[in-house]
Design brief:
single chain, mainly beta, five-stranded antiparallel β-sheet, 16 strands, globular, disordered C terminus
C-alpha cells in the first residue's frame, strides 16, 4: 500500500495492490471510502473536468462494471473502459434475458411503495446466495435463501437496485458447489406498477 495523499482529483487517495492489479481508494465527502479499479481511475483522471465527482460505488451489470459521476459515467467490460459524458449509466441487463443455462435467471421483479422483490428460475438447487446493493450504497452482505425469490424491505422505488444470485448444491462434510453469480440491475421507476409480477427490465 502506497502513501495517502491528495492527487489530481483533489480528494485523498491511496493506491493499493501490486504491479499487475492496482485499486485506488478515495475519501469522497458525502459518499465515504470509495475503491476504484485502476482502469476506471485512469479514465476518471483523463476526463476529470467533464465527469466531476463520483456519486456512487462501482457496481456490476451483466458483464459490465459501471461507476456514475456528477456529469456522466465510466463503464468497463469486454476488455475496454469508456468514459461517457452527459448521462448516467443505463442498465444493459434485462430481466428474463438469460442466454446462460448453467446459472439462475432473474425472470421478474415487483415494486411496491417500500419493497422490491426479485424472482429467478433454476432447475434444482439446495440453496441460493443473494447479494444486493442500492444506488449510492455499498453492496450488502450475502444471504442464503431456499426459495427462488428474495424481497428487500424498506426499498425506495425511485432508486436503482442490483442483485447477484448463485445456485448452490450442498455436500455433506464438504464445501458447497455453486454456479457463477448472475448480476442484474433493476432501474428506478417513476410510477409504481400494478399488482403482480411483471418484467421490469427497463421501466
Amino acid at each position: 500500500m502506497a502513501d495517502t495523499a491528495v492527487d489530481i482529483t483533489g480528494f485523498r487517495h491511496t493506491p493499493i495492490g501490486d504491479r499487475i492489479v492496482r485499486d485506488h481508494v478515495y475519501a469522497i465527502p458525502g459518499l465515504g471510502t470509495l475503491v476504484i479499479p485502476d482502469d476506471m481511475a485512469r479514465a476518471w483522471h483523463a476526463q476529470l473536468k467533464d465527469l466531476g465527482t463520483p456519486i456512487d460505488f462501482p457496481h456490476p451489470d451483466a458483464q459490465t462494471w459501471f461507476l456514475n459521476f456528477e456529469r456522466g459515467h465510466i463503464a468497463h467490460g469486454s476488455g475496454s473502459t469508456r468514459a461517457i459524458i452527459g448521462h448516467r449509466y443505463e442498465p444493459v441487463s434485462k430481466i428474463g434475458d438469460c442466454p446462460m443455462t448453467d446459472r439462475p435467471c432473474v425472470v421478474a421483479a415487483e415494486r411496491t411503495e417500500d419493497t422490491l422483490a426479485v424472482v429467478w428460475s433454476y432447475p434444482d438447487a439446495d440453496a441460493f446466495n443473494v447479494q444486493w446493493w442500492e444506488e449510492r450504497g455499498r453492496p450488502r452482505k450475502g444471504v442464503e435463501v431456499a426459495a427462488r425469490r428474495y424481497t428487500v424491505r424498506d426499498a425506495d422505488p425511485h432508486r436503482t437496485y442490483g442483485f447477484s444470485v448463485e445456485a448452490c448444491q450442498k455436500r455433506f462434510l464438504g464445501r458447497s458447489t455453486c454456479t457463477p453469480l448472475v448480476p442484474v440491475v433493476v432501474p428506478a421507476v417513476r410510477s409504481l406498477p400494478g399488482r403482480g409480477f411483471a418484467d421490469v427490465g427497463h421501466p
